[in-house]
């Protein structure tokens, strides 16, 4: 991407660059010329978050916790170490805490102050997670937010919201769907959605 | 108060409904990956702390009108302009007009995977600080506003909660955000009953926690 031009000769009506795009490209050019950034490093960063780090990492962590009781115990006691043992470490996941959903408690994660999110296991946050509607309502009306996601929990389930106001990052461990005894870890991971690890969804049924 | 954050949104009303998004949707604009990359790469130069970068973002006057990566870029420009790393004219003309300033380090491509995988831990286990609270203790959060970056959300000011987890000393966002150093402080997860935060309007069974540094707390 760095240094490449993006011409779209067949789409002239869309070729006008937005003000933000012009500014970002100008910044990139000035920073590279000044030697503050290495254009090849920019490519590595983009590639990392586009192809290597995303919610499939977290799904594997959850699936393992469903099949391996020892790993589950470790994950709930020391999530940073347990997750790191699967190779998921680093930026915005330096201090991990895993919280488990049960019939009694449903966990949900938000950052009301910015967009803190566990990158190594979930990748970059979706737009709604960073948006004012989610950040304002998650701590006050979480059931209303869940309704926006089409999710209704039993009245008896306690909703427990974690506001990530420091550098601790939270991963929700959803409940394993019933009727999945015959599935292996990889098949189970496919049932684990990103939203189920934030707490705004449940895993898919097989 | 000369310091105004526009990012403290917890509990505010009137922003409408949440719009879910498919998890395979990535970036929404062609420039967003570049905005992410230059923000991460400039962060790695050590020219400011993550807390200073949050302070720069939350004080952008048009914060609520901007998309998230626009906020990042606005704050990145602000941080670099403040430090004289670039000038407004250079950005406007996409051209270098002033000599580069020396940086603590530059993130090279070969070092990037390791740097991303390492991250920047903020725990400081060796910091010599007195841990004042234990799991189960009742605490009241600070009730006054402060004229600088802080991570105690407005909705949780002056509220009584219970210490649920003790995380040990972490870099203190309030001093780090002002460029005044790390001053590690014990960090706790403090959980509040919904009724303590929202009164009788609170949804039954709701509990909400924040992560709070010791200076935000007193015994209750």
TrEMBL record, chain A:
Alphabetical list of Pfam families matching this protein: NHase_alpha
GO MF term set: nitrile hydratase activity; transition metal ion binding
Domain Nitrile hydratase alpha/Thiocyanate hydrolase gamma: 19-200
InterPro entries cross-referenced by the UniProt entry: CN_Hdrase_a/SCN_Hdrase_g_sf, CN_Hdrtase_a/SCN_Hdrlase_g, CN_Hdrtase_asu/SCN_Hdrlase_gsu, Nitrile_hydratase_asu
Keywords for the protein's UniProt record, in alphabetical order: Iron, Lyase, Metal-binding
Coiled-coil parts of chain: none
EC number: 4.2.1.84
Entry similarity comment: Belongs to the nitrile hydratase subunit alpha family.
Classification via NCBIfam families: nitrile_alph
This protein's name: nitrile hydratase
Gene source species: Ramlibacter algicola
TrEMBL record, chain B:
Residues annotated as domain Nitrile hydratase beta subunit: 127-218
Enzyme Commission code(s) on record: 4.2.1.84
Catalytic activity: an aliphatic primary amide = an aliphatic nitrile + H2O
Domain Nitrile hydratase beta subunit-like N-terminal per the UniProt entry, residue ranges: 6-110
SUPFAM superfamilies referenced in this protein's UniProt entry, alphabetically: Electron transport accessory proteins
Domain of life: Bacteria
UniProt entry keywords in alphabetical sequence: Lyase
Record-linked InterPro entries: CN_hydtase_beta-like_N, CN_hydtase_beta_C, CN_hydtase_beta_dom_C, Elect_transpt_acc-like_dom_sf, Nitrile_hydratase_bsu
GO molecular function, a single term: nitrile hydratase activity
Matching Pfam families: NHase_beta_C, NHase_beta_N
Main function: NHase catalyzes the hydration of various nitrile compounds to the corresponding amides.
Family to which the UniProt record says this protein belongs: Belongs to the nitrile hydratase subunit beta family.
Name of the protein described by the UniProt record: Nitrile hydratase subunit beta
Species per Swiss-Prot/TrEMBL record: Ramlibacter algicola
């Amino acid at each position: 991407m760095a240094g490449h031009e993006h011409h779209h000769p067949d789409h002239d009506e869309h070729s006008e660059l937005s003000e933000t795009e012009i500014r970002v490209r100008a910044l990139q050019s000035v920073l590279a010329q000044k030697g503050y950034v290495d254009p090849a490093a920019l490519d590595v960063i983009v590639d990392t978050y586009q192809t290597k780090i995303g919610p499939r990492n977290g799904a594997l962590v959850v699936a393992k916790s469903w099949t391996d009781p020892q790993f589950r115990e470790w994950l709930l006691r020391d999530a940073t170490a347990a997750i790191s043992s699967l190779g998921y470490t680093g930026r915005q996941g330096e201090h991990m805490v895993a919280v488990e959903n049960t019939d009694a408690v449903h966990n949900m994660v938000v950052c009301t102050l910015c967009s803190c999110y566990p990158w190594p296991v979930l990748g970059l946050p979706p737009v709604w997670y960073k948006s004012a509607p989610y950040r304002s309502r998650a701590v006050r009306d979480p059931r209303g937010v869940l309704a926006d996601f089409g999710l209704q929990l039993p009245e008896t389930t306690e909703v427990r919201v974690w506001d990530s106001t420091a550098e601790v990052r939270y991963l929700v461990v959803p409940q394993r769907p019933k009727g999945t005894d015959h599935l292996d870890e990889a098949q189970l991971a496919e049932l684990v959605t990103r939203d189920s690890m934030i707490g705004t969804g449940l895993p898919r049924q097989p | 108060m000369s310091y105004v954050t526009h990012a403290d949104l917890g509990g505010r009303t009137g922003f409408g409904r949440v719009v879910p998004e498919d998890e395979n949707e990535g970036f929404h604009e062609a420039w967003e990956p570049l905005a992410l990359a230059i923000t991460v790469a400039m962060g790695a130069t050590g020219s400011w702390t993550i807390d200073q970068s949050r302070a720069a973002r939350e004080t952008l006057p048009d914060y609520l009108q901007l998309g998230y990566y626009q906020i990042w870029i606005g704050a990145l420009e602000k941080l670099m302009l403040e430090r004289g790393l670039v000038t407004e004219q250079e950005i406007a003309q996409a051209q270098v007009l002033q000599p580069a300033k020396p940086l603590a380090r530059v993130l090279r491509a070969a070092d990037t995977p390791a740097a991303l995988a390492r991250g920047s831990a903020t725990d400081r286990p060796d910091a010599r600080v007195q841990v004042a609270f234990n799991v189960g203790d009742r605490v009241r959060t600070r009730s006054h506003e402060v004229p600088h970056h802080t991570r105690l959300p407005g909705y949780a000011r002056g509220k009584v909660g219970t210490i649920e987890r003790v995380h040990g000393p972490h870099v203190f966002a309030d001093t780090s955000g002002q460029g005044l150093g790390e001053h590690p402080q014990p960090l706790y997860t403090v959980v509040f009953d919904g009724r303590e935060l929202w009164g009788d309007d609170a949804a039954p069974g709701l509990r909400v926690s924040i992560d709070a540094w010791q200076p935000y707390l007193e015994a209750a």
